Amino acid sequence: MGKELVITIDGPAGAGKSTVAKKVAAELGVPYLDSGAIYRAITWYMLRAGIPAEESGVLEAALGSLLLEITKNGISVNGRDVSKEIRMPEIDKNVSPYSALKIVRNSILGIQRAQGKNGVVADGRDMGTVVYPDADLKIFLTADAEERAKRRYEERIAKGETADYGQILEQVRARDEYDMNRETAPLRPAENCVIIDSTQMNADEAASAITQLARSLG
Ligand code: DC
């Protein structure tokens, strides 16, 4: 079952969307789309090219010439796999201003929708509100900012990186603020979505709640 299902999982940074979405996709046998990775890849490219996060002809031309490819394990830009680089703190810090721009968002609508042709579990900020407004199931996955910062902190430490909890909490809050208050496609629960607060849940519990909802659609 579930071959053609479109399931959207939106929510703030660090709510566990990607871990949960991957589990749901695997369980239901549908592809997974990490829309944040596309914004991160664009940010990676623009930072390297020295193109600032503002609407301009230069940015538009760069977007038009970029070849973004979603691969099985990540994403590539003009043929180069950037899946690792896009997780660096420099991208965390800079991605919100690029992703707030209308020309950036419009430029990737097509690539996102193409991924949903045969069903998809898509995570992001506007999957249910803008990209797949007719999705079969829309989830808004959230958790307290402190819990989300703690998860990010533990992720970094587990990878052997250095991390400062206070700084991460500040960044999580700043990113929420920016993502919720931007003009284009702000982060907010879609109409008819199911809100899941994962503060007290692990990823398996959140994923199984969503899988059960999906199965109950019949
Ligand atoms: O989910 P993430 O942390 O990888 O997303 C990175 C940034 O991209 C996030 O701060 C906001 C932006 N984003 C967005 O604006 N819309 C999406 N659908 C996904 C991500």
What's the oligomerization state? Answer: single chain
Judged by helices, strands and strand pairing, the structural class is alpha/beta
What is the strand content?
A: 5-15%
Distance between the termini: 9 Å
Q: Residue-averaged pLDDT, rounded?
A: 94
In DSSP terms (H or I, runs of 4 or more residues), the helix count works out at 10
> What strand line-up does the widest sheet have?
2-6-1-7-8
Low-confidence stretches: none
What ligands can be seen in this structure? 2'-deoxycytidine-5'-monophosphate
Give me the count of strands: 8
Order of helices and strands: EHEHHEEEHHHEHEHHEH
- Assign an overall shape: globular
Describe the fold and architecture.
- With 218 residues, the protein is an alpha/beta fold.
- 50% of the residues lie in helices and 14% in strands.
- It has helices at 17-28, 35-49, 57-65, 89-99, 102-107, 109-115, 127-131, 145-158, 165-181, 203-215; strands at 6-10, 32-34, 68-70, 75-77, 80-81, 120-124, 137-142, 194-197.
- The protein has a five-stranded parallel sheet with strand order 2-6-1-7-8.
- Bound molecules: 2'-deoxycytidine-5'-monophosphate.
- 2'-deoxycytidine-5'-monophosphate (DC) binds next to helix 2, helix 4 and helix 9.
